[in-house]
Amino acid sequence: MTQRYTLLLIITLAIAVLMTGGMVYASSAPVAPAAQGQADPHATAPVVTEDPRSTAPWWVWPLALFIVTFILGILAVLGGVGGGVLFVPIVGGFFPFNIDFVRGAGLLVALAGALAAGPGLLKRNLASIRLALPVALIASAAAIVGAMIGLALKPNVVNILLGATILFIVAIMATAKKSDFPIVPKPDNLSQSLGIMGIYREESIGKDVEWTVHKTPMGLALFVVIGIMAGMFGLGAGWANVPVLNLLMGAPLKISVATSKFLLSITDTSAAWVYLNQGAVLPMIVVPSLVGIMLGSMIGVKILAKSKPKAIKWMVIGLLLFAGLRSLLKGLEIWK
Amino acid sequence: MGSEKTKASEEQMAYAKVLNFGMWLGLAVLIVTFFVYLSGIMPTFVKIDDLPKYWTMRVHDYNVALNAPTGWGWATFVGKGDYLNFVGIAMLSGLTILCYLVILPILIKKKDTAYVVIAIAEVLVLSLAASGLLKVGGH
């Protein structure tokens, strides 16, 4: 166990050194001339926003992004939230990148996290493909609509809506209850006809737990809203998926959390394609963020066993509250 | 230990297997291509030093300013270090479609009609998103 932990730390450190070294090297190495494909980018210089933070050398930001997302990755695991929900408001609020690129990166960060977690959750039968597939169809179609709306809106409108959403998430996180084994008196007709049910091994009580769901039509309707919000803001939507699956539809908490994570790999895929096709993906933002948050998550999992979850949860809520307010005030042009 | 009843279904295991392989492959490609990009051994579409001038722009303005490709146009620029990274990104983004295509024959074999329809519909939705046919208006 200690050996694995040490190995993980060494790998993390090696990648961090490589990332830092790569960026410093690239900052000093002569970049090959840009034989731009379709036009000289500098000939048609458009409106270049003069953000004072942009005067720093280019490599400062990806490096800062890597460090910040590494920390966010740790906090996300300890706070029980997805990386995307922390990433978008914090990076959007405090980095010079346009919110379009931040949302594109946010979706890919959430997508990568979900893709990484998916196989293990499916194999252990905690994520249920029978529960996820109908929900994913609704949510992924809605996420496309959300992504298109989000990219068409003005940045200050996006920031206002994002800020309001983050503050709403804070309220949900602070007040929502969770139920390990919700009572489902009778599965509804739709869930019965789709065969949405399962059985899994609950190690904490040493028993096999049978589960089914109810209120499926209402749950699916809510996933339209969740999908739109996920696509619009580039947020992973675990914060909304879990309460709907667990509290409304009555899936056990473990099944809800695992299925939600797997679900993100489908929902975020559809929205990610829209951002990718519109060009709202910059590798210089995406890759350091993705690597940072994944390495942070791995460390977070190791720390989880020794941490005090309640204190961390409130720290994450505080961080989201601050980031949500920042986004809201930025959108209202009170705090630029 | 879990009993036979608690084991994941055949389609779930097949999905997990493809997802696991594809995720690691996509991630490895993404990291390798990023270091190729940073190393400067390939020409870039946008000079790295110039990036701070452009990443503050809205994506529409960025595309106009640089005459940057949209849709699958990036595929013609994989010879540029920055667009080379899109290979790994597209692999990760396309993985779910592949997973659905893998489980489809299993669902058909099981005569699970409802899930066959759902899986086909999902492939169509994701393919539409991936196609680049959906356009977002300018600003």
Layout of helices and strands:
The complex is a heterodimer of chains A (about 325) and B (about 140).
Chain A: H1 2-28, H2 60-79, H3 83-94, H4 99-123, H5 129-152, H6 155-175, H7 189-194, E1 197-202, E2 207-212, H8 216-233, H9 238-248, H10 253-278, H11 283-304, H12 309-331
Antiparallel strand pairs in A: 1-2
Helix pairs in contact in A: 1-2, 1-11, 2-3, 2-11, 2-12, 3-4, 3-12, 4-10, 4-11, 5-8, 5-10, 6-12, 8-9, 8-10, 9-10
Chain B: H1 10-39, H2 51-54, H3 59-66, H4 81-109, H5 113-131
Helix pairs in contact in B: 1-4, 4-5
Q: Average pLDDT across residues of chain A?
A: 83
Largest sheet of chain B: none
What best-fitting shape of chain A do the alpha-carbon axes yield?
globular
- Identify the biggest protein-protein contact and residues per side: A-B, 94 and 93 residues
Helix content of chain A: 55-70%
Report the order of strands and helices of chain A.
HHHHHHHEEHHHHH
Strand content of chain A: under 5%
Oligomer: heterodimer
Shape, per Cα inertia axes of chain B = elongated
Order of strands across the main sheet of chain A: 1-2
How many beta-strand segments of chain A?
Answer: 2
Integer count of domains of chain B: 1
